[in-house]
Specification:
The structure is a homodimer.
Chain A lengths: L8 H19 L2 H8 L3 H7 L3 H26 L4 H15 L8 H4 L11 H21 L4 H25 L3 H15 L2
Helix pairs in contact in A: 1-2, 1-4, 4-5, 4-7, 5-9, 7-8, 8-9
The first copy, chain A, binds a DNA duplex through helix 3.
Chain lengths: 188, 188
DNA sequence: GTCTATAGGAAGATAGAC
DNA sequence: GTCTATCTTCCTATAGAC
């Protein structure tokens, strides 16, 4: 030992992600990130030569590809719109740990970096999410405008339920929102 | 000069508030806060002996009393529920600068302070807001459970629309949400 | 690949003059 | 009440041994 990888890539990114989701970009000190990963600061720099900004970028990229794989791909898959939406709900529940973990898109959007290196990626993720959700609702028979509007409202309600859950110190709002979502989207 | 107050209380809190709303608690450095207010760090400490934490606390208190005065009191006032809601929408639009400024309740809820000195106040503000909104919807003829649920959803959508607006770099989601709100609340 | 040690700077906070 | 100057602590980042 001493020369081997002590923590695998996936777990490393996941632990870093937890920190950024809890305290945001500025709140995530290298001391916190090191503690969460079990690595020393210098080891983190070996893996991420550009430091904290690179860590946040890779964490955000990972979240984007996770969303693509576990949420968007299933939304585009074959099957009834209703069952595709049920699948999304299940994955969202897991991704946000039943409402206990905040969304990176919210926690990183205030990072005051020169020009904002996360801005573009955050926009892309939001856009992809709403696009895929719109497509399902189109399949379900909604017209283009209504589908887009309802997709946007869904993403906003998800974000809002996470903010509200965190602020109130309970996961109930998030859980109730997820529970009501399939019926909401089926309306009209 | 030199011994006089160069900035009045209200304006001071307002400028500090803008910084916390933009970059959150950890992102709000004393350098930023000093720049925004036109005061030097030492002057800020003269006014806020407990430093940044006190600044954030007073800013949050001010936001709470602003909400009470401009949003909750009008919600409780005499008049048709619909017109009281219209009044709230107008005030919300001003308070969030048409969607350009984030909500303190979101931006301060991740402040990683020993035990979280803001937690309690954030909960209280959310609770008061939803209570007042529920009461209006009760007046409008909704049953207790539905009124409460719709009030919560309104607050969540507001938060979500602000998060989404910031993430997408446009105020459109916030503005559209506000515009649709009166009709939404009138349903059923 | 991980570590200890440390540089260099920015952060929060204070002292004391005016 | 505001300022300049300074202190201390924490933070980001690097050097170099193993």
């Amino acid at each position: 030992m001493g020369r081997k990888t002590l923590i695998d890539e996936e777990e490393l990114i996941s632990r870093l992600s937890n920190v950024f989701r809890e305290v945001g970009y500025e709140g995530a000190t290298l001391a916190l990130l090191a503690e969460a990963t079990g690595l020393k600061k210098a080891s983190l720099y070996h893996r991420f030569p550009q430091g904290k900004e690179q860590m946040a970028r890779e964490v955000l990229e990972k979240a984007g590809s996770w969303l693509e794989e576990h949420i968007l791909a299933p939304l585009r898959a074959a099957g009834a719109p209703a069952s595709r939406i049920d699948a999304m709900v299940k994955q969202l529940d897991a991704f946000y740990s039943g409402g206990r973990q905040a969304c990176l898109l919210n926690m990183l959007s205030s990072a005051r970096i020169h020009g904002g290196p996360f801005t573009e990626m955050i926009e892309r993720v939001f856009e992809a999410w709403i696009g895929a959700l719109s497509a399902v609702l189109l399949d379900a028979g909604l017209d283009r405008k209504t589908a887009r509007s309802r997709a946007e409202r869904t993403v906003m309600m998800l974000q809002g339920s996470l903010v509200f859950s965190r602020g109130m110190g309970t996961t109930r709002p998030f859980r109730e929102f997820l529970k009501s979502l399939p019926a909401e989207l089926r309306k009209i």
